[in-house]
Amino acid sequence: MKKILFQDTSFRDGFQSVFGARALTRDFIPAIEAARAAGISHFEAGGGARFQSLFLYCGESAFDMMDQFRTAAGPDARLQTLARGISVVALGQQPRDMIDLHARMFKKHGMTRIRNFDALNDVRNLTYSGQCITDAGLEHEVVISMMELPLGCTGAHDPAFYLKTLRDILDAGIPYHSVCFKDASGTSNPRKVHETFRQARKLLGDAVEIRMHTHDTCGTGVAQYLAAIEGGCDGICVGRAPLSGGTAQPDLFSMWHALKGTDYTLDIDVARLMEANQVAKECFKDYFFPPEALAIDSEVIFSPMPGGALTANTMMMRDTGTFHLYPQVIKAMSECVARGGFAASVTPVSQFYFQQAYANATQGPWKKMTDGYGQMVLGYFGRTPVPPDAEIVEIAARQLGKPVFTGDPVDIIEPGIPAARKILQDNGLPVTDENIFIIGALATTGGNKGLDFLKGQFSVNVRKAETKETTDHKAAAPAARPVAPAADAPAVGDYTVTVNGVRYDVQVAEGTGQVLSAQPAAAAATAAAAAPVVAVVGTEIPAPVPGNVLNVSVSLGQAVAEGDLIVVLEAMKMETPIKAPVGGKVLVIHVAKDSVVHAGQVMMVIG
Hints:
Blueprint: E1 2-3, E2 5-8, H1 13-19, H2 25-37, E3 42-47, H3 49-56, H4 62-73, E4 78-83, H5 96-108, E5 113-116, H6 124-135, E6 139-146, H7 159-172, E7 178-183, H8 190-204, E8 209-213, H9 221-231, E9 235-238, H10 252-258, E10 264-265, H11 270-283, H12 291-294, H13 307-319, H14 326-339, H15 349-363, H16 371-378, H17 390-400, H18 417-426, H19 433-441, E11 443-444, E12 447-448, H20 449-454, E13 459-463, E14 468-472, E15 492-499, E16 502-509, E17 515-520, E18 533-534, E19 539-542, E20 547-552, E21 559-560, E22 565-571, E23 574-579, E24 584-589, E25 596-597, E26 602-606
Parallel strand pairs: 1-10, 2-9, 3-4, 4-5, 5-6, 6-7, 7-8, 8-9, 15-18
Antiparallel strand pairs: 11-12, 13-14, 15-16, 16-17, 19-26, 20-22, 20-25, 21-24, 22-23, 24-26
């Protein structure tokens, strides 16, 4: 009997697929130790969204987590991480020096193998990153990304397309240790999977290790794996209770059971693994398991929404109070896939699809072209499998103010290490390779979340069953900052002002009516209720979308010109800059950094 290799993905993709990647290291180390004792020696240990989430939601360094993972798994375990071609584990495309630094840092912190994919299946995006992984002394597992297309779509994502991509990889001379076919949405038809593996085995011969990765989101994960194995697959990815099934990987025991009576088997000690599973269940007994992470969602077949992105997005929708919009967003996502060029629905493209669908559902179809989706259809992430819809390309070019790009994306990205080093020096932070990479990987247009973390300005946002574990390490920011009156300022009148249903204590210069300061009225204050009430006359600035306030760029009393940046909102990892529609003075600020706003909520008043 052929022994099928398997990787335990519970502690990376399981975290991402079930908890939106929000899991604290201290909570799961005992589960790794128990898995090691039960005989598991191949773990997915980081990378992908788990790199970002540790800094953004867990208040931890991903490098520290990897070190602890290595200690718990033992010196001989194969530890694997996930990288996204030229984006590696960053929030956007990375320059060559950062791609190289990524491989060297992951090798330094105990990793064995990096599974490297490109959502567009543009082989150019795998060439340099694959060479860096190999040069760093790591095993390079090169990936072909799979999915099923929405109804009525043809032109890519069939066995012929996947085999062409594989031939392109071989023709490019990319060094690799193994080949993986990765279906992040779990939607590929099992017969298509079988034919793809049959032809890939014929092309590669018997010596090359071929693996498959999928999710059980739409309920066909085990069937996909059986089809792949019968077609020549050597290894699969599985999860273990309580981090298996649903949006995560098919369960190890389910797969072991499905192979009974065949010529294949999984070499496991069932009794010891049952004990290890009990340890894992104990570790996560307090965690909030979203219902959508545990269920089968057959409608994902038509989207297709990856398991690893689904709960990350629904967690963020809960954070921003928009979870009720999820069915509308999923419906809108099919059109985004159909018109976007058929890039595989895997990070970062799955997020581009969801962000655009979210914008279409909240602001109207194509009223707002999101940055990631727009750059993708314009070519700044590489070539999509088929040309995007011409109308969508025209909308993206007009709204983003960018032309279509046909070159190699990595050629137009400036080196990242010098800029990151300067940021560290300017902020008095240690200039280490780890810190350089953190700065480069977590930079956004609205700021640098890596810098925030290194300066101790971060929050822990991990949802537990009874309550959300939240620890804020940021200095409390006032909702509105007062303007100190000059020494020769006129007499001041104190008022309580009600704007948009919210009461504020306001100081106004007698005679001129100039607003000198405004602060939210204390809930317990009773004297303010008897004070005269006045209205602030000016232009209200509503939030165009629901989200978190990433940054407030102006202060109370500040003069602004039309078009000046005043607020940056963030929703679904998408930043929305808000610019002043008129010139004037900032009279009232209703929001502060890290507050949550709903669509239409007034954020400030300019007059």
